[in-house]
Design brief:
The chain is mainly alpha-helical. It has eight helices and two strands; from the N terminus they run E-E-H-H-H-H-H-H-H-H. Strand 1 (10-13) and strand 2 form a beta hairpin. The protein starts with 9 loop residues before the first strand and ends in a 7-residue tail after the last helix.
Length: 180
């Protein structure tokens, strides 16, 4: 710990002396330890599959994302209705080229967004009734559920529905209507 300051411009917050106007990350990190634990565990679980090449429907969707003609209002999704998500997925698929690892990083980032939104929704709905570790446990059940985990390993257009619905619901309930 730092010694007490001689000038009066420093304040103590959570046992650490801070200069006036500085921000400490300690309160943010300490109250969201369950969330960070779930995200780090998810990353460690997902990293061995970073080079996974999509199979079955995922291979078809990945091919369409990389090679099919995509316009503002038209995109070929092989009969699937998620053309906006496919349009969004096509950007990293085309930028990644033959490097499937880069495309899988995009899927990982999207899944982390849905894990974060799920955690925040649980905090909003259950925060008064359960503790932080319990919310973290519920979030882990969501993140490691076979349908969620397998849809993040193999490209599935239904994943976009889950991600954007959770983000929409969180934005709407927090009254951030611009993002909703």
């Amino acid at each position: 710990r730092a010694s007490p300051p001689h000038d009066r411009t420093l304040k103590m917050r959570n046992g650490v002396f801070l200069k006036k106007g500085s921000i400490s990350l300690r309160p943010v990190l300490s109250c969201h330890i369950p969330l960070f634990t779930v995200i780090i565990t998810y990353l460690l679980t997902r990293l061995p599959y970073i080079g996974f090449v999509p199979l079955w429907d995922g291979a078809i969707f990945y091919w369409f994302a990389r090679h099919a003609k995509i316009g503002v209002t038209t995109v070929e999704t092989h009969g699937h209705i998620s053309f906006l998500y496919m349009w969004l997925v096509s950007v990293p698929a085309r930028l990644a080229g033959d490097r499937i690892e880069l495309f899988n990083c995009f899927l990982i980032i999207f899944t982390i967004c849905s894990i974060w939104a799920f955690y925040k929704l649980l905090e909003m709905f259950l925060g008064k009734y359960v503790s932080g570790p319990e919310i973290g446990l519920f979030t882990a059940v969501f993140a490691f559920h076979p349908t969620v985990l397998s849809n993040t390993i193999n490209l599935n257009l239904d994943q976009g529905l889950m991600i954007f619905f959770l983000l929409f619901l969180l934005s709407y309930l927090k009254e951030h209507y611009f993002f909703a």
